[in-house]
Structures are given as structure tokens and as C-alpha cells.
Amino acid sequence: MTYTTLSLTLIFVLIPLLLSKTLKLGLEKDTIIATVRSVVQLLAVGFILKFVFDSGSSIYILLMVALMIFAATLNARKKGKVIKGITWKIALTLIVVEIVTQGILLGFGIIPATAQYIIPISGMLIGNSMVLTILFLNRFTAEITSHHNEIELILSLGGTPKQAIHRQLIDAIKASMIPTIESQKTIGLVQLPGMMSGQIIGGADPIQAVQFQILIIFALLTTATLSSLLIGFLSYPTLFNKRMQMLKSQ
Amino acid sequence: MDFTYEPAIHFQEVSYSVNDLIILKNITGSIPKGKITTLVGPSGAGKTTLLKMCNGLLSPTTGTIFIDDQPITAYEPTALRKYVGIALQSAPMIAGTVIDNLALPNSLQGEKLTQQEAIQYLQDVGLDESFLHRSASELSGGQRQKVSIARTLINKSSILLLDEITSALDRQSVQDIEALILTLNKKYKVTIIWITHNLQQALTIGHYTWVMMDGELIETGESSLLNKPKNHRVAEFVQGVNT
């Protein structure tokens, strides 16, 4: 694609801008910011990826993955400010998810140990893990607020913090995993996944594109389960003190 | 108050505040063992906070609480909460049926409650066995309070904290619950602290009364003090409630 044809895609930005202006939706500023940011960020990533691919250095691969985890952590932590130490808990979750999934992919030789495979796949898995973490934190904090009396009841009857928070924890873990599982049920029927579509547009064999997509959706299942469980079990103890009292009650 | 009684709970200069808001101010006093002590006072006096502290749901900001002469911090929290049971004012229910709620104290310890035991506890609070498999979310306010009381009794606590447990009940149910609490106290020597807004209840059921206002313990003594309060603020409060 040439830059001239690429610039024609700005028509897709003009349409929402015009509609927003006409219907007084007030989304013009956000639309422009989102457009500029996405262009700058993607172009920057494109040049960085080209540099990393050309260099072939594993240090740069590690740096790229570290940068992804850093950015994802900063984004997700906004949703869990009530949880003490949420930043390192999210970072640890994302690091474990990355190590486990890439460990399996590289350890079993499922993908070659090159930047072209590790970085895009890491991006998809860390990105998914970040979204799951945000979904979990949203749901978990809402569950705690709306079921405060039940949690206090279980503590008052001699239950441990783990017993008191068990239902809210499980509900939040399940709620954060459901979108991943549900979207996989309709994959290929309702929507063609972005990575697969990109490969096909780029001229790859559709069967090979499907094979890589299957790899990703299977890896996403592990990512979803690990992310929800890790962030869940790292988060709940910080809501209580040593006397097994809810810190919000203090 | 007659201090010849052995204290079940002793408060030593207990204060509690959240951020800059003072909820309890320098409370010192004893709750006699094996007796019924009622806590009365206007809303916002700090009565519920005091009760939650005895059950270990909250800790004093300063001061010490002694349970059977041992500092409350010497007790393992889960053991303390079984020893000092509480029926919360909001009578919260876990999702599920009445029997799920009644079985909760035992299930937290990995034990089971038989159906026969559950029926007995329901009958103790004036509910029949048809309630056993009813959804807890469908219960009326009064029925919830009764199930909440029954559930609190299951841990067989030596000290029982009751936070306005009869506020949503009809007259007959109030009498039934009062009779049950009196039996628990007389037969099993259970120490009871009962928050009530019903001064007549405090007079007829309670051996002793604590009157609290604005986070302070204003007056204590035998329940008959409510007939002739020494403190003018208590006198005004009693007059206000009775009119």
C-alpha cells in the first residue's frame, strides 16, 4: 500500500467527525486525539519493529516485551487503585503469563525463536491479559462494594478472609474470562480475527493463517485463565488486615 | 454498676475514629458475665461500632478490650468470632435458601448441619420447617431477622451480641425472641449485649443498661436506671423516646 492510498483511509475518520459535529455528540476532540495517537504510535512501532527484526538481537526482543508489559501495567492499574500494591501485582501477572505461554511456544518448538514471531504473539497475549485484568478489577471492586454485608457476615461467623471473599472472587474471575471463551465460540463465523485477516491480506496462504490463528486462540485460553486467577489470588489478601478485618471497614 | 460480677467483656479507655471522625470516645466499663446488658441511645451514638469491636470486626484506635480477662488481640480472630457471636442489624443473607444460610456457620468449619438441627433452630425463632428450602431473597424483613438470629445461635457462642434484632418484628414475634434470649441466658448462662431502641424491652429483659450518646458512655447501671436517670441528657433522651 502506498502512502497516498493510506491517506485516503482518512475518509473513515472524517465520517465519524462529521456525524459527531452534526449530531452534537461532542466526540470530535477525542476522535482527533485517537487518530493522531494511533498513527504516531503505530508508525513508531513499525520503525522500531523493523530495527529489532533487522538487528536479530535477543536483548531488543526482551526490551520490546518489557515495554509492552510496562505499558499494559500502567493502563490496567487505574482500575484497581483500591487494591494495595496493584501495580506490581499486575506486572507479576503479565510477566508470569508471558513466561508460561512463550515458554510453551518456544520450548516445544511451536514457533521459531525469532523477533518476527515472539514480539507480535507477545503483544496479542499481553494485550489480552491486560484487558482481562481490567475486566477482573472492574468486576471484583464492584462485587466487593455491593456484597460488603455478606463478606462481613461470613467474617463475623468465624470465616477466614478467603471464605468471606470466595464468591465475589470466583464471580469476578468467571466474568473476566467469559468474553474470551464466548468470542472463541463464534470465531470465524461472526468475525475473522485481525491477525488472520492481516496475514491473508498480506498474501499468506489462508490455511497457514488459520493455523496461526488456532495457535493464538488456544494460547489466549491459557492467558485468560492464568491472568484472572493470578490477579484474583494476589489481590484479595490485601483487602484484609492481620486481624482478618476488611480494610474498607476500618 | 455492680462490679461484684465477673466481667465477660471489659473496655479500657476505648476510642475509635475513622480519618478525623471520632465515633467512640474513651469508653471504660464492664459487661457482666452471664447477664443481659442492653445498649441504648440515639442513632449514631456508636453502639453498633462497639458491638463490632467485641466480635473483632473492628479494632479500637486506642485502648484495649478484654474478653474473659484476656486482651482481645490474644484471641485468634476466627476463634474469637465463634466465642463472641453477633447478629448484625442488617440481617444479611448469602445467596441460596434458608438452610444454606443456617448451614453457613458449620460449613465455614468444614462441618455439616443436619436437616433436623436446622428445623429445631427455625422452630426456636418461631419459623416452621416449610421455610427450610425457601429462597433467602424472598424472606420478609422480619423473617430475615429470625433466620439471622437462628444462624447466629448455631455457633453456640458464650457471648452473644444482638444489634436491634427485633426492630422489624411484630409484637408476637418480639415476645417469642425475647423468651428465646431469656432462655439462652438463664439455661446456658450466655452473656448477652443487646442494642435496642425499645426502652421497655431494655427495662423488662435487660439486667443492666449502658446509655451511649455521641460516642460516649453516659450512664450505666441496673436497667431500672431508665426509670430515674441521674444524667440530665439521659433523662431527656428517655423522655423523648417515651413521648
Element layout with pairings:
The complex is a heterodimer of chains A (250) and B (243).
Chain A: H1 3-8, H2 11-22, H3 28-55, H4 58-76, H5 86-107, H6 115-146, H7 148-156, H8 161-185, H9 194-201, H10 206-235
Helix pairs in contact in A: 2-3, 4-5, 4-6, 5-6, 5-10, 6-8, 6-10, 7-8, 8-10, 9-10
Chain B: E1 7-18, E2 21-32, E3 36-40, H1 47-54, E4 62-67, E5 70-71, H2 77-83, E6 84-87, H3 98-108, H4 115-124, H5 141-153, E7 159-163, H6 171-188, E8 191-195, H7 199-205, E9 208-213, E10 216-222, H8 232-242
Structural overview:
Chain A is mainly alpha-helical and 250 residues long. Chain A folds into two domains: 1-55; 58-249, no CATH class. In chain A, 76% of the residues lie in helices and 0% in strands. The mean pLDDT of chain A is 91. Chain B has one domain: P-loop containing nucleotide triphosphate hydrolases (Rossmann fold). In chain B, 35% of the residues lie in helices and 26% in strands. Chain B has eight helices and ten strands. In chain B, strands 6-7-8-3-9-10 form a six-stranded mixed sheet, with helices on both faces. In chain B, helix 3 (98-108) packs parallel to helix 5. Chains A and B meet through helix 7 of A and helix 2 and helix 3 of B.
| CATH hierarchy: architecture of chain B | 3-Layer(aba) Sandwich
Mean pLDDT of chain A: 91
Measured between the Cα atoms of the first and last residue of chain B, the distance is 27 Å
In angstroms, what is the radius of gyration of chain A? 21 Å
Helix fraction of chain B, binned, reads: 25-40%
